[in-house]
Write a structure and sequence with these properties.
Layout (H helix, E strand, L loop, with lengths): L22 H9 L5 H10 L3 H4 L3 E2 L6 H7 L16 E3 L4 H13 L3 E5 L16 E5 L6 E4 L4 E5 L4 H9 L5 E2 L10 H6 L7 H4 L6 E7 L5 E2 L1 H4 L1 H7 L9 E8 L1 E2 L4 E9 L4 H11 L7 E11 L6 E11 L3 H11 L11 E3 L1 H8 L22 E8 L5 H12 L5 E7 L22 E8 L9 H17 L26 H12 L1 H14 L23
Parallel strand pairs: 2-4, 3-4
Antiparallel strand pairs: 1-2, 5-6, 6-10, 7-11, 8-9, 8-10, 12-14, 12-15, 13-14, 13-17, 16-18, 17-18
Helix pairs in contact: 2-5, 14-15, 16-17
């Protein structure tokens, strides 16, 4: 792999400290704390170049520790003193330091957390209630785009925005079918399956992973051939951090036209939204797979009045021209009422800027500027819809949103198309044929000092009431959930299969979850790689649990 030209945004976290090799000097430079001294000493003993490696290690006593921990946290809900922090942060620039850190963590009883982009909704990649070492991949973010073979090698610390930008510098007719949030780290995103604006044409992101570089629990570096197909299957949607450490993914790039067509249109209750949305549920998952139309549901006051309404923002992207899209929508979805004036043709890379909520005139270089992208402050849950919600159900949802203080968002992503072509066991991500929409539900804590203020708690309670209201209208047995939107409210029990199935079957369904458990038992039998919702290891054989 060769380094991509992201030098303007790549920062190596070494500028604030000066180091020397000797252990005597090290204790004052790193300001080693008692609970990290054993780990630091182990790194020194096993490093061939500790003078260099020591610049990449941070303990809580270092002035740089907190800024390094905070900078990649994308959900500001967890930027508070009470959030448990690592004993040590390691920010490697090469694979050798990762292997050494893994060895020393195992030797001295630390758990490991792996952070690629910092978008973990429950902070599991950078927080834990036990002593742990955080491996932060911020310095390992190279991207090597191979246009001739339609592939890209992407290190774990690269973000989706950096990947899209790197591709756009080489070609405007290839892209990667990933998500629309630019600061999401590629490593963790791929491990959960991944979805985005091209899923109706090319499937989930992990469907387009063709190889990997991976460190197993014994410190061996494996690729797809060396690890075997079972483990390669597991890490593409089964939560890769349950099995080891992904260093880099080799991704398949897909064909796109030089320009795509993007549009946005708002509809309110006063404009017949309910009937439009009802029709949308039938059109969006079945229309030409070159077209994806997502919907964002919000409540808001009408002008300066005290009367509320529901507004839905329909956002579409079409892999083709305005001239081809306009007659398609006029025929299939005339109720939406689109006009030529709302359409705009642009390269695929610019569509990411628009779908993130920025003007289309925004320079695409912003995709490489992590600090320029607004961070979130919210609680998220997910669902899947397999049957269109009836008019009566939609009205109940609208009424529930009217009760909210404008802190809530419901986003519907249509499936169908290519997603229907995959078996639910193709990779661990099982939400395939029959899914009409993936649903994201969110409440934010904007304007609050924490997520525990009375207002914040009221918003969380409102979200729980929405969960209950939606129950008749979403998938059942199990009520499916998206593992990349991890949600500890689903449960964390893992003493036996019955406990773990409460949350595991919602993320992966029974067959996939049991297969993941079997693979985990083979590759990490002592359950070193773990967190509250990692793939469990049971003392009793899996066959004993029904």
């Amino acid at each position: 792999m060769k380094m991509s030209l992201l030098n303007s945004s790549v920062f190596v976290l070494v500028l604030t400290l000066s180091f020397s090799v000797s252990w005597g000097a090290l204790s004052s430079i790193l300001e080693v704390t008692p609970d990290s001294e054993d780990f630091i000493s182990c790194l020194e003993s096993n490093s061939k170049n500790f003078a260099s490696d020591s610049q990449l290690i941070f303990t809580p006593a270092n002035a740089s520790f907190l800024p390094v921990w905070e900078v990649a946290i994308q959900n500001t809900r967890y930027l508070k003193p009470s959030t448990p922090k690592p004993s040590v942060i390691v920010t490697p620039v090469n694979e050798t330091l990762i292997q050494t850190a893994l060895y020393c963590a195992k030797k001295h009883g630390y758990e490991i957390r792996i952070r690629s982009g910092g978008h973990d909704y429950e902070a599991l990649s950078y927080s834990a209630d036990v002593p742990f070492v955080m491996i932060d991949f911020t310095n390992m973010r190279s991207i090597d785009v191979d246009v001739a073979n339609s592939t890209a090698w992407v290190q774990t610390g690269a973000t989706l925005g950096e990947l899209y930008y790197a591709i756009s510098q080489k070609t405007n007719t290839l892209f990667f079918p990933g998500g629309t949030c630019p600061t999401v780290g590629v490593g963790g995103y791929m491990g959960g399956g991944g979805y985005g604006n091209l899923l109706r044409k090319y499937g989930a992101a992990a469907d387009n992973a063709v190889d990997v570089r991976f460190v197993d629990v014994n410190g061996n570096i494996l690729d797809r051939k060396l690890m075997g197909e079972d483990l390669f299957w597991a890490i593409r949607g089964g939560g890769s951090s349950s099995f080891g450490i992904v260093l880099a993914w080799k991704l398949r790039l897909v064909l796109v036209p030089p320009k795509v067509t993007v549009f946005q249109i708002n509809k309110t209750l006063e404009e017949g939204l309910t009937e439009i949305f009802y029709k949308y549920q039938y059109v969006a998952p079945t229309i030409d797979r070159n077209l994806l139309i997502r919907a964002q549901v919000l409540s808001e006051y009408i002008g300066n009045t005290t009367k509320k309404t529901i507004r839905v923002l329909f956002e579409g992207i079409y892999q083709g021209t305005i001239d081809a899209l306009l007659p398609l929508l006029d025929k299939k979805f005339p109720e939406l009422g689109v006009t030529r004036q709302i359409f705009e043709e642009m390269p695929s890379v610019r569509s990411i800027v628009v779908f993130w909520g920025l003007p289309s005139s925004t320079p695409v270089e912003i995709l490489t500027n992590r600090s320029a992208i607004t961070k979130l402050n919210n609680k998220v849950k997910s669902d899947y819809v397999r049957t269109p919600i009836p008019i009566t159900g939609l009205k109940k949802i609208w009424n529930k949103f009217m009760e909210n203080d404008e802190s809530a968002l419901l986003m519907m992503y249509p499936f169908g198309g290519r997603m229907n072509d995959y078996s639910e066991t193709a990779i661990p991500y099982p939400h395939r044929a029959g899914v009409l929409f993936q649903v994201l539900k969110s409440v934010n804590f904007n304007g609050q000092t924490s997520d525990t203020t009375p207002t914040s708690l009221s918003r969380l309670a409102w979200m729980q009431s929405l969960e209950e209201l939606l129950t008749p209208y979403v998938s059942k047995n199990p009520r499916e959930a998206y593992s990349n939107y991890n949600d500890l409210d689903l449960g964390v029990g893992n003493a036996n299969y019955k406990e773990a199935s409460v949350w595991g079957e919602r993320y992966w369904k029974r067959g996939n979850f049991k297969k993941l458990i079997r693979i985990k038992a083979k590759v990490d039998p002592h359950n070193f790689f773990r967190h509250p919702q990692s793939i469990p290891v049971f003392l009793s054989p899996l066959s004993s649990f029904k």
